[in-house]
Design goal:
The complex is a heterodimer of chains A (224) and B (114). By secondary structure, chain A is of the alpha/beta class. Chain A has one domain: 3-Layer(aba) Sandwich (Rossmann fold), CATH 3.40.50. Chain A is built from 8 helices and 8 strands; from the N terminus they run βαβαβαβαββααβαβα. Chain A has a 7-stranded parallel sheet, sandwiched between helices. In chain A, strand 7, helix 7 and strand 8 form a beta-alpha-beta unit. The longest helix of chain A is centred in the last third of the chain and has 18 residues. The mean pLDDT of chain A is 93. Chain B has 114 residues and is α+β, with helices and mostly antiparallel strands. Chain B has a single domain, classed as 2-Layer Sandwich (hypothetical protein PF0899 fold). Helices cover 27% and strands 34% of the residues of chain B. In chain B, helix 1 crosses helix 2. The model of chain B has no long low-confidence stretch (mean pLDDT 95). Classes of the chains: A alpha/beta (224), B alpha+beta (114).
């Protein structure tokens, strides 16, 4: 004899519950929160370094930097002028989850913060499934990768709101087609906003900074 | 292999429910898995089989129902199944699509072993 029992539960419901608590806290403070995701080596840390150096006067930025091992990224970001940089070592785990973010945020003073960056572990698969309480995911792709990556990792590109194409200064040395990567990304996600830039030369960064300042101001004004 | 962590999470949730309902054993755990959940059915089954040993669920099978991605077009309002993750409306060509199904990772039923 066996009996089928109806029992409906989201497997990640505990993560989602904590993410909702984090989101509520950040919303109440009017802090714009961005979850940065990409393959390893696309330039998440470089983008944050430049952003900290060049926008540090205008925006109060806090960071949570996730890595599987080492605090190297967190150290780089502290040197770049990060007001608050909280390292999270996942100890082998391939992504950050809401519990790690909750712990990290409990250890930092968020008062006066305009923007919170969460630098996820370099991985285009696992981080897509975990809500961290962020306003949006920002996915980076660089011109030394394949321009078909959005098609290979649809879950991540579907769940991101912004795509940043980095290392545009290297385009002439690679077979990466910028128009193609944009077209590929838009078949997965027609709402994606796209920026093209080079963290090395600085080209295209102004548009990103403008967007960031504007988005932070909107978030602050939305505070109830 | 984040499927192993998810398998462990499923087992923890189900164990709590078994305790609550005072069930001694399970034959089956039903799971609904969306095509865009970010999790692989094969790896999940494999991980579950390994992780379930020596738990109250020992011997239970994970029965995975895979569901496709579905969307609603914001321009023409029609519903359609999204093939190959191409989020373009087959009726009007719009790329403004709301996803209505496909990111599930849900336990849906248990089968008791009496």
């Amino acid at each position: 004899m066996s009996e089928k029992i109806n029992f409906e539960k989201k497997v990640l419901s505990e993560n989602d519950r904590l993410a909702a608590v984090i989101r509520e806290n950040l919303n109440a403070r009017g802090i714009l929160s961005l979850n940065l995701v990409s393959s390893p080596g696309s330039g998440k840390t470089s983008l944050l370094e430049r952003t900290l150096k060049e926008l540090g006067e205008k925006l109060n930025i806090a960071l949570v930097a996730g890595d599987v091992q080492t605090e190297n990224d967190a150290n780089r970001l502290s040197k770049a002028g990060g007001r608050i940089v909280r390292p999270v070592i996942t100890g082998g785990a391939c992504h950050l989850d809401a519990r790690m973010i909750d712990r990290a945020l409990n250890k930092i003073d968020l008062s006066g913060t305009d923007v919170l960056f969460i630098e996820n572990v370099g991985n285009l698969v696992c981080p897509s499934s975990y809500d961290l309480g962020e306003d949006m995911k920002v996915v980076l792709i660089s011109t030394t990768e394949g321009d078909d990556k959005p098609l290979k990792y649809p879950s991540m590109f579907r769940r991101s709101s912004l795509m940043i194409i980095n290392k545009t200064d290297l385009t002439e040395f690679t077979d990466f087609d910028i128009d193609k990567v944009k077209a590929n990304a838009r078949t997965i996600n027609g709402d994606l906003e796209i920026f093209e830039l080079s963290c090395r030369t600085g080209k295209g960064l102004d548009a990103w900074y403008e967007w960031l300042i504007d988005a932070a101001a909107k978030k602050k004004n939305s505070r109830q | 292999m984040h499927e192993l962590r998810v398998a462990t999470e499923i087992i923890e949730i189900v164990c709590k429910e078994m305790e609550r309902r005072k069930l001694s054993g399970l034959k089956e755990v039903g799971l609904r898995l969306g095509a865009l959940s970010g999790f692989d059915a094969g790896a999940l089954s494999f991980s579950f089989e390994a992780a379930v040993m020596d738990t109250p669920l020992d011997g239970a099978k994970l029965n995975i129902e895979q569901v496709p991605v579905k969307g609603t077009c914001r321009s023409c309002g029609k519903d359609f199944e999204v093939n190959e993750f191409v989020f373009i409306c087959p009726h009007c060509g719009s790329t403004e699509i709301d996803m209505t199904q496909g990111d599930e990772l849900d336990i849906v039923y248990l089968v008791e072993d009496k």
